[in-house]
Design goal:
The protein is 47% helix and 16% strand. It is α+β, with helices and mostly antiparallel strands.
Length: 128
């Protein structure tokens, strides 16, 4: 994933006026995207913006949401081995904690891994 500054600004500029109080979060997210910073921090910024947006502003976050879902994934690992990769699916009305709990439950309840300790981590998808 390599985005130009123009592509990043095209994702963030439409939401800036309605989320002016979250300017620091928008700038943090811009910096993370420009530097291909930690993907978990990108998700945290997204949820901070989504939570701050009122119901009328949340549709403006759709391009950013689509971007996150297209470019991020969750790697599931245990005992030093990768077990699977989950897609990032951001649901409306969900906050970061609910998203994380849903992802953990999906792995723990829907799978039969023998490992006692599983690690889930956000990462950027590999270039196709």
């Amino acid at each position: 994933m390599t985005l130009t500054p123009h592509e990043i600004d095209a994702l963030l500029l439409p939401i800036a006026p309605s989320l002016a109080k979250e300017a620091d979060t928008i700038l943090d997210l811009r910096d993370l995207l420009m530097s291909k910073g930690h993907p978990g921090k990108c998700v945290r910024c997204f949820f901070r913006l989504f939570t701050a947006a009122g119901t009328e502003s949340q549709p403006k976050l759709a391009p950013l949401r689509n971007f996150m879902e297209q470019h991020l994934e969750i790697a599931v690992r245990a005992d030093g081995a990768e077990l699977e990769v989950l897609p990032v699916t951001l649901l409306a009305g969900e906050d970061l904690e609910e998203f994380c709990l849903r992802s953990m439950k999906q792995v723990r309840l829907d799978r039969t891994y023998r490992a006692k300790r599983l690690e889930l981590a956000f990462r950027y998808k590999a270039a196709a």
